[in-house]
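Dig into what follows:
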Amino acid sequence: MATWFDGIKSFADVPITANGISTQEFLEAAESLTTLFDVMQSKAFGVVKSDLTGNIKKVRDRFVAAPAESQTLQELVINELKTGKHTATEGLLWLVRGLEFTAKGLRHNIDNPSTELADSFRNAYGDTLKPHHSFVVKPLFSAAMSACPYRKDFYARLGEDQGKVQDGLNREVPALEERVRILKEFLSSPQAKW
């Protein structure tokens, strides 16, 4: 019996090397994760998904333009900044913020089994994206948080076998958290500044 996790590229399969996090696999995993917002079955989440996919495209465009110097996300940023541009670097910064929001929302919900999804994602939004959003964007994201499905419905949509769903969450969320932590640390370092 398949779950949502069976159809995605897992962050657990994204290599972390001495040179950084593999760009190609990371982008594939991030694209897979955006389908989680389809599982929410709310048009309000279109803004969240669109934000993520737009930033994935910025990073991918740089990767396609300069693959040899973009094998890891860290190399991509360092080499892009040498050119005097920062489109992909800024895209990665916002992508990491969006992924952190998603990871924190899921983590809060896993750790608090009686909490509704809307509350978990509302808390995550306040901790991650909200401080960086303008007064124009904040209401759009607030509407998305309010449109979260009920917890029981969301987990049922992830898969019928709830044991497999829990196994998927227990694999995916820590892997996502680890890669977000590494990238946040790198993006706040002097070598990633523009």
Remarks:
- The chain has one domain: 21-186.
- The chain is about 65% helix and 0% strand.
